[in-house]
Amino acid sequence: MNGSELLLSWVDVARRLWKVSQPCEGGTDAAVPPKGLVYTQTFWDRLFMGVAPGVDHDAILAWLSGIFGPRWQKDEHGRSILLEAHGEALSHLPVEVRELDEEEMAEWRNTPFQPRFSPPRTVHFSRTSTPEPDPFPLDQPPVLAFHSFKGGVGRTLCALATTLAYTGHKKKILLIDADFEAPGISFLFEGRKPDPDFALADLLTMLHADPDPDGQDALATAIQGVSNQCLDNVFVLPCFRNLEESVSLEIRPEHLVASTAHHPFFLGDILSRLGKALRVDLVIVDLRAGLSELSAPLILDPRIKRILVANASGQSIKGTRFIIQEIGDTLKANQWPANNLPALILNQLPSVLMPKKGEPGNERFNAMVESIDEALMKAFPQREMSVAEKSELILPTTAEEGISKVTVSYNEPLAMLSDTWDDALETIRQSVIPEKIWDTLQLWLPATGEPVPKAKETSLSGTLDEGRKRLRDFAEKLVTAEGTSEGSIEGAGFLPILPLVHLAQDHVAKLPVVVSIGAKGAGKTYSFLNMVRCHHWNHFVERVKPDLNSAITAPILPVLWSKNADIQEMAELQDLCRKDVGIHLAGNSKPFELTRALSQLKHSDLYLWRDFWTNAIARSLGVPEDSSQPFETLISSLRQDKRQIVALIDGLEEAFPEFAVNPIQQTALRALLQEVPNWLRTLPGAPLGLVVFVRQDMVLHAIPQNRTQFTERFVNYALRWTWVEALELAAWVTDKSKATTNLWDEDFSKLSDAERTSRLKCLWGIKLGGDKTNEAISNNWVLSVLSDLRGRIQARDVVRFIGLAARKSVGNTKTGDRILAPAAMRDAIAECSQKKIDEISEENAPLKEIFDKIKGKDSSPTPLSSPCTYKKLASLSLTEGQIELLEENGIIFFDNSEKKYHFPEIFRYGLSVERAVGARPKVLSLMRKARNEGRF
Fold first, then answer.
1. Where in the chain is the domain with CATH 3.40.50.300?
2. pTM for the whole structure
3. CB contact at 8 A, 506 and 715
4. Alpha carbon distance 157, 93 (integer Å)
């Protein structure tokens, strides 16, 4: 408690005492109210303190003096609190202690809780806790309240848009205007129905006067009146019947609690019961903006769903955070569970702040969202964790995942909305807002109907354990598919992710000359194998995009491949290509060994390397060794017979293991990646196409200049997995394993977030725990722990995780509603991380050296925790260049706000890095940001 706060009047004293009465983290013992203090009442001329019989008055007053510090005064005139005002009457607030008898004690302790925003003059310290209100009966509709801290942010528009979203899905709505001071819905409705039969003000007045504590007569009157106020499946309850004459509200919501036997949230009950009588699916209430006591009984009702509306202004964001905290404080004060989280609509955003596809998001936008997410975590602590648990695998609660939100850009027609009901609703209907609210918040919204969301009928193939075994076997084969022949996963095909779709679409009528860049595990080798197994370019185009018809029948020639590939299969594919070309070149009895030829070359001339690569393509097809110019011979033959070929190259990281430090290998790569494509584009008639699959870090070292220009040229073909594609991969793998049917189809990527979540329910559930728990949404959790802290995720990690989790789920009898058991999913992360580190170590010598230092293999292990400083990393003998290499590969992430490096979960386990105690909130924050970036 800040004892230096300015106290100008008795109102400040009341506020200080109210703050002391609220639960506070990290509060001092001095601020804890003494046992026996029952209440305080602050008036303009006196402060009364009610205490239990027999309580030591001096102890009570000593506590009060500790609260007010030097402002506490005791003299011959009595006790008082000094205020910052002129004159004796205004500068002294006398204090009196009243000892209560047992009857008074019982009366004070049983005083009902009153939901309100402003600090009351009467503060209760010994009140019996108010029980959590009973949930609405299942046959009553839920209530959805819209609130905003400030006016002018489009709250009413969002309420109307949500109403249209529901009616567009054949739902009936009771729409209530509870903004008595600026009734927007009521003014619109008045133009459509000038003389309504019933209003919310009438309902409040009748409930206040109704002797029946259940308000049956008042409710019956409301039902009769509102039944005649229906427009297109929307029953409308305006604030007042006559807006011009009704300038004040005689009976307010808080009066229902203050002067009757109703419980604090009686109004929510009545509105839900009214909705039931009208047979609606949902009650939507548009509340008064700000900290209004008109809104408190509904916005603070723990049963009511709340959508908070804000714009990008600082005061709107700050106020929204305050509202969230007020809701949380009400829950804490009454010891109610923090389950019903609010959602957020960020409205009227300028285009510069709107998240864009393929971009990480505007810094200011990210900061706004994160500040609200932090307020949500603080206000809704959904479970306590031990110190040990905080250092283990991140298992976010629903609140820690971040607020469910919709972003809406500024829309000029909506800023000039008509004042007539039909025109205004039609303008809103024509905007994207109703559909966007429905699609984005469908899992959060109440009463969306069954099924929620609508999805294909998916089913298990066989028993649950049979499905787990099929998924295990298929996923494990897929992880190592580079080393298998086509038959081992026969019929599976491959997932047409966006980069491959771009490759097919852009080369329907011309040969590709493309460098496809991807991180380790992005699926380069798998894409290479599936492409060469198509045999001809037009077959590849049709496999990726069945509605495309390519006339390019060029055979596909594997030139270089991963060492784990089936050599016999590659040789057979080369033979097929030779036969398809049919140009009768004098072939060699001895196949061309490109890998050996690469190891024998030591020169660093860029153009000699260019000639080497082009000749290697010709030699792979069978141009004889004694030909002085194999490439020219090949091109001449292709032109003569009007033939074409597409050459494919993969496995460069194995051919050039020292690419990070060896200048000759860097030159060889630069010639292949830059010079060869440039040369092929100059050839008349373009008889030769080329697709090179290369790892991202190899490009970094091979092309030191104009690298951005180079990568942008091929950005559409980069094997970069968005989170949507990663989820589609999970569905595809599960279906192709025959563990399920109809989990995946070609329209999966077009589904909304809610539909994808529903579709994947049979794989890993809606949430990691039960679907009604406060645990993380499974889709979000899986991708968060598998991605780096920039939102980047690799296909191999997704497939490996599924395989490991399926293996660990076999025999699990506790989880019967999904293929992957939650415990198995959690256990799979550490092994997935370890295998990833092992693979990188095998293929990347520079990183292996760094990993050995981190794990202390060359010396006694030095404990390393995440996050850590640059100095700590340097103490492990890591050089500046090595630390940069870790950053480049996403193995560490530098957080500029705290000047420390974080290890993502997918790397942290495999490197035996602990998470520092207290780091959890920051890690969750970074994971939320990564999730926002990885969605696109």
1. 143-441
2. 0.81
3. no
4. 47
